[in-house]
Amino acid sequence: MSKPLTLSFLRSASDAGQLPESRCEVGLVGRSNVGKSSLLNAVANRKGLARTSKAPGATRLINVFELDGEPGRWVVDLPGYGFAKAPKAQRAGWQAMMDGYLIDRPTLVQVLLLIDGLVGPTPLDVQTAEWLTHHEVALRVVATKADKVKSSRRSARRNELARGLGVAPGDVLWTSAAKGQGIPELRAELAATLRLNP
Ligand code: GTP
Ligand code: MG
């Protein structure tokens, strides 16, 4: 299925405790600037839906996007980690926000862990994958910015990403928000995953 997911912005929160219950949600997690908001926009085929920026730190809140006509089925865009320029106190705040969200959402059925296809996995990516696994959060690894990696290198890069993160190469999905690669597959997966809870 390659139809865009019809998503609309529902609300933002600085604390997961402010969010109402959902039926089923998928979170987008990854380094700042890895392309989380861009991937969300590509999946929805709506460029300005989530705010993106060349400078890391574009997303500062938990931003909830809901499937149109299906209340409680959410894709959640999260602030990125590893934003070196953020002051220490702010970084700690983000960490608490992320941890709170990832641990306190009983209807969180999957996290898409986005890894920069050109540069990842970074030590923080590896740490995040371990942390999510430790907390028994179901993980799907998505390699971003495929268009920046020569096609002849993609297979080797996928193997490196998988090895670094301790998953099978087949568990890594190549995507490009810019060129559309992997977006139909991701749409189909998300559509199915968002309906895992009745
Ligand atoms: P934070 O909100 O800071 O956590 O970042 P983010 O992960 O949401 O990244 P965002 O989507 O804002 O994208 C960061 C930069 O990467 C922007 O300049 C995007 O245009 C660029 N980018 C995102 N996806 C792609 C892609 O598939 N290919 C290329 N070439 N650039 C991309
Ligand atoms: Mg963002």
What keywords describe this structure?
binds magnesium ion, Rossmann fold, binds guanosine-5'-triphosphate, globular, 32% helix, 198 residues, alpha/beta, 7-stranded mixed β-sheet, 5 helices
Brief sketch in words of this structure:
It is built from 5 helices and 7 strands. The protein has 198 residues and is an alpha/beta fold.
CATH C-level category: Alpha Beta
List the helices and strands in order.
EEHEEHEHEHEH
For the termini, the CA-CA separation is 21 Å
Quote the average pLDDT: 92
Tell me what the CATH architecture is: 3-Layer(aba) Sandwich
Would you give an account of this structure?
With 198 residues, the chain is α/β, with parallel strands linked by helices. It has one domain (7-194): P-loop containing nucleotide triphosphate hydrolases (Rossmann fold), CATH 3.40.50.300. The chain has helices spanning 36-44, 88-104, 123-134, 151-165, 183-193; strands at 7-13, 24-30, 62-67, 73-77, 108-116, 139-144, 172-174. It has a seven-stranded mixed beta sheet, with helices on both faces. α3 links the parallel β5 (108-116) and β6. α1 packs across α5. The longest helix has 17 residues, at 88-104. It is globular, with a radius of gyration of 16 Å.
